[in-house]
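Let us practice reading a record.
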Amino acid sequence: MRSGSGLQRAQAFLVLATMLYRGSHLMVGFLAVVQHQRGRPVSWALLAAAVTSSVLVYGRARVRGWFDPRLVAADVLLTGGALPFLAYAWAGNRDAPSIAWAMLLGGSASGVAAVTFRRWTAICTVLLIATIHVAGYRMVHADMAVIAGHTNAVVSSAVLTSVFWWYLRKQGSTLDAATEHAVNAEAQRARYAERIAHHRALHDTVLATLTTIAGGGVDANSEQVRRRCGREAAYLRRLIQQTSDGESNPEVGAALECAVRAAEDLDLKVTAQYHDLPTVPTDVATAFGDAVTEALNNVLRHAGTGHAYLTATGHDGHLAVTVVDRGAGFDPSRTRDGGLGLRRSVHARMRDIGGSAAIDSAPGEGTCVELRWPG
C-alpha cells in the first residue's frame, strides 16, 4: 500500500478512535478504584495490567499502522475474559457496582477484535466476551437489566466499529482511486504538453531550415547552412533520445536543451546525452538549466575549443549532469573566485536548491563540471 494512502489514513483514524474509546474505559476504571477500592492493592494491580495491555495493543498499532492480531488476542483474553473473574476472586468485587469497571473494558476489546480478526473468528470472539459478561454478572447476582445493558454494549461496540471501519475503508479506497486518476491525468497532460513543445521546436528549427533550403533562397552548400544543418541534426538526435525515454522528465530535458541550443547559437558544438531524467521540482530544473548555461559559456570564453560534451542521467530520483571540454583547462586553486566565476554562477545555484557542484580541471587537461541533486 502506498505511504500516506487513503486506506492508511483510514486505518490510522480507526486506531486513534478505538484508542480513545479504550482510554475512556480505563478512566472509568481508575475513578472506580479510587472511589471504592482505594485500599485494595489487587484492584490497582488489575487496573495496571489493563493499562499495560492497552499500551501494548495501541502503541504497536500506532507504529505499524494497524492492530497486531496476537496482541489483540492477548488483550481480549485479559480485559474481555479473565479480568472480571480475577476482580471477583482476588479483589473481592462481589457486587455489580464494584465489578462494573472490569466488565466495561470488554466493550472496547470487542470493538478492536471485530476489525482485527477474520469474520468468523471475530464473531466467535464477540460472542465469547458477551458470554463472559453474562456469567460474570450472574456471579454477583446483578439485575437482568444490568446484564442485558452491558451485553448489548459489547455487541453494539463490535457492530458499530465494524460499520465504522467498512465506511472508512470504502472512503479510503475511493480517495486512492481519485488520486490515481488525477496522477494519470496529470501524466497524460504532461505528455501532451511535451509533444506540443516538440512540435513547435521542430517547426521553428528543422522545418524552417528545410523549407528555406527547398525554396532555393539560400545556397545549400554554404558553410553557414551546413553548420545550421549540423546543429538541427544534433537537436533531432537529442529529441529522439528524450522521446524514446518514457521516464524522462520533460521539464528537466527542456531546461537542459535550452542551455544547449543557446550555446549552439554561439557556434559551440555540444554533444549531449540524456538518460532516465527524473522528475524534479521546477526550481531544480531551472537551476540546472542556468548552471549548464554558465558552464557552456565558460567553455566558449576560456576553453579554447569549439566542442563540449554534456551528459545527464537519473537514478532513484537523483539527477547528475556533467559538462566536459577538452580545452586549455586551468588550476582551480590558483584561479580567482574558484575558477572563472563558476563559484558564484554554478556552486551558488546548486547550493540554493540543495544540490552540489564539483569542478575538476588542470592546465592542458580540459575541464569537467559535475552537478548533482540532491547534493
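A brief commentary: The chain has a mean pLDDT of 84.
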